[in-house]
Every structure is written in structure tokens, then in C-alpha cells.
Design brief:
The protein has 6 helices and 5 strands. With 143 residues, it is an alpha+beta fold. It has a single domain, classed as Nuclear Transport Factor 2, Chain: A, CATH 3.10.450.50. Strands 1, 2, 3, 4 and 5 form a 5-stranded antiparallel sheet that branches. A hairpin with a 5-residue loop joins strand 4 and strand 5. It is globular.
Length: 143
């Protein structure tokens, strides 16, 4: 019975959520997976196209290649990074068709390199498709 209830809960993640809220959730999920060096999750949250760009030096651009690359780049998160991820807000979500762009804000300023593009997958989930420049209209955080 508990398994059935858990499956219903998992199937309904995002039920009733707006597209913008789903993008926000995808971005936060991406941040947390990176922070925790959850390489499998990081790679599963990338579009195949971004995975290919990210692994441009490799002849194959599979999830296994992505895992190897992520493991090589892994560094432990600092206390400051953990605090920032806990406090960060996803703002200015713009959706155009199957593409979305969102930005991160910490308190009253925009963090550097915080814009991200997402693409809607065939299953309706939003996947990370690479960084985009900040808007330039918001105060930048002093890092």
C-alpha cells in the first residue's frame, strides 16, 4: 500500500503547477544536484544537446561520458555555496514555446552567470540546456 501511495505522489509531482513553477523546480533540482555532486542526477537533468556541447572533446556524448566528466570536475561544496543554494530564488522565468530562461537572485542581487536555458522534453519535464548571460538590469552580487 505504501508503494502505491508513493507512486501516486511521484506521478503527481508538478500536478497543478504552472509551467513557470516547473521551470523553477527544474532549476533548483539542477542546483542541488550539482551542489551534492549527484553526477547521475546532473547528467539526467541535461538535454542531450547540452550534454554534447559540454562534452565537445569526446567522440561519444553519452550519459556515461557525462558521468565521467562530472566526476572529474567534482569539488566539495563550501558552506557559503550551501547557504546560497538554500536562499536563492529563481526569478524572471520566461517561456517561449518549448524553451524557457530563468535567473537566480540572492537577496537583492543577481549572481554572476546565473541565467539558464531549459528545454521541454518529450515527457513534459524541463531539462537544463546551458547558461545564458544575466539580464544586466539587476544589481550584481559582490562575490
Amino acid at each position: 500500500m505504501r508503494i502505491a501511495a508513493a507512486l501516486v505522489l511521484i506521478a503527481c509531482v508538478g500536478c497543478g503547477a504552472s509551467a513557470e513553477e516547473r521551470v523553477e523546480h527544474a532549476y533548483k533540482d539542477w542546483l542541488v544536484a550539482n551542489l551534492n555532486n549527484d553526477h547521475e542526477r546532473v547528467c539526467s537533468l541535461m538535454t542531450p544537446e547540452y550534454r554534447g556541447e559540454n562534452l565537445a572533446g569526446l567522440s561519444r556524448k553519452s550519459v556515461e561520458d557525462c558521468l565521467a566528466e562530472e566526476r572529474e570536475r567534482a569539488t566539495p561544496a563550501t558552506a557559503r555555496q550551501r547557504r546560497n543554494v538554500e536562499q536563492v530564488q529563481i526569478v524572471n522565468v520566461r517561456i517561449e514555446g518549448e524553451t524557457a530562461i530563468a535567473y537566480l537572485r540572492l537577496r537583492d542581487c543577481t549572481l554572476g552567470y546565473t541565467g539558464a536555458e531549459f528545454r521541454r522534453a518529450a515527457d513534459g519535464e524541463w531539462l537544463y540546456d546551458g547558461p545564458v548571460p544575466t539580464t544586466g538590469r539587476e544589481a550584481r552580487c559582490r562575490e
